[in-house]
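Q: Trace token order:
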Amino acid sequence: MEKLPELVFIPIPGIGHIVPMVEIAKLLLSRDDNLFITILIMKFPFHADGTDAYIESLADPCSTLKTQRVKFVNLPQEQFQGHGATDFFTFIDSHKSHVKDAVTKITESGSETRIAGLVIDMFCTGMIDVADELGLPTYVFCTTGAADLGLMFHLQALRDEQNKDCTEFKDSDAELVVPSFVNPLPAARVIHGVLFEKEAGNYFLNLAKRYRETKGILVNTFLELESYALQSLSADGKVPPVYPVGPILNVKSHDDKVGSEKLNHKSDILKWLDDQPTLSVVFLCFGSLGSFGEDQMKQIAYALEKGGFRFLWSLRQPQKEGAVFPSDYADYTTILPEGFLDRTAGIGKVIGWAPQVAILCHPAVGGFVSHCGWNSVLESIWYGVPIATWPFYAEQQVNAFELVKELKLAVEIDIGYRKDSGVVVSSQDIEKGIKEVMEQDSELRKRVKEMSHMSKKALVDDGSSYSSLDRFIDQIQSSSRT
């Protein structure tokens, strides 16, 4: 009897990576009744950005996943030494022997399945060595957009084929012509900050170099959103097949898996939103690392108050020395302008942790001031909420540039802001961006609503992402028979 195909998924332990990985696994299982999936779980040796609670929810006996053909395997925990990018890559690679042991155990278990390949997170390229050693194909799941993926390939080629040192872009006026973008990129403003560091930058570009060794790349995007970038990747004979399969989102959210205190907090937020007029509230939220210094927070407060906006502001405490993630503020009065909370009472609400999905889908929310993490971008498009861009780190500046300049799906507060730059964005610029994103009958809002419709259409029968996932499943089935 022919054994059925099984895929081994290897996400990194970050909520913005593990949730999409689990969602694409669920989608694959729903589309192929003969497929099995094992998800290998790495864990940080410290409390992370909701990841622990989410992972625990997956092991819940009441989870619907338990009735499907998926299992979760916790890998032995490794130590994370330091906090920089190179330390992070070293931490991920330290799991290679554990991954090999886990995959070997599956292979030797005598089960009804045959491993058809490893699906690795975009930061887990070291696992390609494990797959090669075991004679297995590797696929990458890219949690960023296609344009950013194209940028990574381009910069890697510049380094390896033209001996270009990307650290030279840091203080330059260079305008980069990149195949996955229509417009030239202002390099110093928008390319990944990690590339301005020699060692970490080389680690980063080596990721793209290794993507070229894989059998295919799943990208969390859809054809209608990034048609130009996807066409450029398809035209590059040195890039493996690219499968746009998004938007892969946990639109049902996992907020119900948080503690009772956060559930009460969520209920309080939604009750407040229920009392606000439709499309009247601007939501400000900057992701798990999205904290500002006191001077910048005051500029945001001045902008909100002067503009008279109804607002919901997720405010997080600046990262303490030795901490990996910022914590929520317990007392906002110590850092906001004196009397701000009293003067904005009734029209504004300052919160710590935010149930982002539940907020974005609420009819009172009309605009989103966002750090432009790719998951947040896709969520805003899904719910038709336009963004005012305020990136922090990683590929967020690239995303902001793409949204504002390429796709015309966002307005700019800043597209080149970097978390550790020391720059303070003025209240005038913040107020201007919020006014633009909250305009009710704007062309921007119409374009975002149209893209929202296309994002949902991409996932249904014969939609672009539906068909792309079919092609990937065909590839898996073909490789499992060889």
Q: What stands out?
A: The radius of gyration is 22 Å. The chain has a mean pLDDT of 90. The CA atoms of residues 183 and 406 lie 7 Å apart.
